[in-house]
Amino acid sequence: MAAGQRSKMLLIVTGSSLRAEEMDRPLAYYLKQQVEQSMAASAAGADSIQARVVADFRWLNDENWQKLPTISLGGPGVNALAHRWLEDVAVTLAVDEQYYIQMDPDLNNLRASIWGMDNPTTQIAVSAFVQRYLSRFLDRCLTYTPDLTESEDSD
Q: Is 128 helix (H, G, I), strand (E, B) or coil?
C-alpha cells in the first residue's frame, strides 16, 4: 500500500497475551465497526479512514505505524502500548478509578488509550469513548497527514 493511502489509516492496538486476545480484541473489532459506521454516515467520502486492528508488539516494532493515528485498547497489564503511554498521555476521563480514557484533549497528538480495571469496565470505557470522543477524533484524523518514509505495506 502506498504511503498516501496509509495516511488515512487508524490503528486500533490490542495486547498480545491470551487474555487480551480473548477479551480486548473483540472490543477492538467493535470499535473498528463504530469507526466504519461513522465514516459511512459522514461526508468524508473518498477521504474515509480505514481502521485496522493490530497487536501491541507489532505496533511497537514498526516506526511508520507509530506515526499513524492510534487507539490503544486494554489496560497496561495486558497491552504493552497502554503501558508505554500510561505516564505520557493525559487522562481525559477517569471514572471512580475503574476506567480511563487517555488522550490529548486538543487532539494535537492522535493517540488515545482506552482501558478499564477489568473487561466489563473496559467495555464501558469503549462505549464512553465512542459516545464522547470518537467523532472529534475521526474528524482530526481526516486532516492529519503523517510523514511516512516507507512506501510499502509493513504487514
A: helix
